[in-house]
Amino acid sequence: MGTTQEITVWTIVKILDWTRQYFADKGVENPRLDAEILLCAVLNCPRIDLYVHFDRPLSPEELKSYKALVVRRANHEPIAYILGEKAFLDFTFKVTPAVLIPRPETELLVERLVLLNKKRPKVSFLDIGTGSGAISISLLKLLPTAVAVAVDLSQEALVVAEENAINLGVKASWQGVHSNLFQQLAPTSKFSFIVSNPPYIKHNEIALLANDVQKEPHMALDGGSGGLDFYEKIISEAQHYLEEDGLLAFEIGIYQAEAVSDLCKQAGFSKIVICKDYAGIERNIFAAKEGSDYGNALMEIE
Ligand code: GLN
After folding, report:
1. Half-sphere exposure of 163 (CA within 13 A, CB side)
2. What spacing in Å lies between the alpha carbon of 119 and ligand 1's midpoint?
3. Do residues 107 and 61 both lie within one domain?
4. What are residue 148's DSSP bridge partners?
5. Are strands 174-178 and 191-196 parallel, antiparallel or unpaired?
6. Rounded CA gap, 109 and 197, in Å?
7. What's the first-to-final CA gap in the chain, in angstroms?
8. 159-212, pLDDT tens digit by residue?
9. 91-130 burial, b for 16+ CB within 10 Å, e for fewer?
10. By C-alpha distance, which of 293, 193, 292, 295 is closest to 243?
11. What is the pLDDT of residues 222-254, one digit of tens each?
């Protein structure tokens, strides 16, 4: 009689269990969740469907596509790069390895800026180191009468940001400029506020970052030996590009609040507000002149 051969039927539940274990062995941080997200990308379905149809077998084509994604994730490629997109506030941004992946804590910087600007009729702002454009484009979505100039040293990043501006319908009020900080701006440019989430990791600490973060562009992370290079450069020139009584708004790294706030004070910004992130870490600095409209508005978010 013929021999019987056991054929493994890879159902949704079975492949998820297998992948969870595989990712865990490879040190992937959220093994089960990531397995589910990747499988949803292949099956083009919401996560709930995995649970509703957990006994559904996968076709050989589906298995092949899924396996390719699993290999990438096991190699610590961030999920956002594998999917090519990342949610930020209510918006979905295209991301590639040319841009930093937008972080949830950066949403706070945008939300606070919306509060600070909501009573202003005419807002123009400069976003330095725009990357994917998450900050400037979200701000334009939430402050529909504002206009933005977004600079980046990376031409590749600007291509991604521009695509996001188009996809999210704000290209008419968003201008990308390939520039090292202020260099390519017209010397007469004046903005209501300047916002930046510059590279702020100390150069020597880049190698200590999680594997996933190491896959992000180092030029978006490396803030020089003390991590403060970009704050020093931006703050020293900011006054020139700000309207009288303009505002400076930064994301900062852990333990940088005092140093950055001192730089702002030395540059003549007398009203400083420091805000924390979800983890209680000082994450944003806002700086304006005491008694100015922004200075007064800052008192409302303290
Ligand atoms: N928030 C990023 C991180 O901790 C750093 C981003 C930056 O340098 N601006 O990995």
Report:
1. 16
2. 30
3. no
4. 125, 174
5. unpaired
6. 9
7. 81
8. 999 999 999 999 999 999 999 999 999 999 999 999 999 999 999 999 999 999
9. bebbbbebbbbbbebbbbbbbbbbebbeeeeebbbbbbbb
10. 193
11. 999 999 999 999 999 999 999 999 999 999 999
Between the CA of 61 and the centroid of ligand 1 the distance, in Å, is: 37
Q: What does the alpha-carbon distance between residue 135 and residue 103 come to, in Å, rounded to a whole number?
A: 10
Say whether pLDDT at 106 is over 50.
Answer: yes
Query: 272 and 184, same structural domain?
Result: yes
Residue 10 Cα to ligand 1 midpoint, Å, equals 39
Please state, rounded to an integer, the average pLDDT across all residues of the chain: 96
Q: Which atom of ligand 1 is nearest to the CA of 201?
A: 8
| DSSP designation for 121 | S
Q: What is the pLDDT of residues 68-91, one digit of tens each?
A: 999 999 999 999 999 999 999 999
Please give the number of the atom of ligand 1 that sits closest to the Cα of 106: 1
Which of ligand 1's atoms lies nearest the C-alpha of 105?
1
Regarding whether 101 and 188 lie in a shared domain, the answer is yes
For residue 67 the two structure tokens come to 């396996």
Confidence (pLDDT) at 132: 98
From the centroid of its chain, how far is CA 293?
29
- C-beta separation of 196 from 250 below 8 A: yes
Query: How confident is residue 1, by pLDDT bands cut at 50, 70 and 90?
Result: very low
- Ligand 1: residue of 103, 130, 132, 208 to mutate (most ligand atoms within 8 A of CB) is 103
Is residue 1 a part of any domain in this protein?
Answer: no
Q: Work out which ligand 1 atom sits closest to the CA atom of 223.
A: 8
Residues touching ligand 1 (Cβ under 6 Å) are: 100, 103, 197-201, 213, 221
Same domain, 133 and 272: yes
Binding site listing for S-adenosyl-L-methionine: 129-133, 152, 197
Whether the pTM exceeds 0.70: the reply is yes
55, amino acid identity: D
**Domain that includes residue 124, residue range:** 88-300
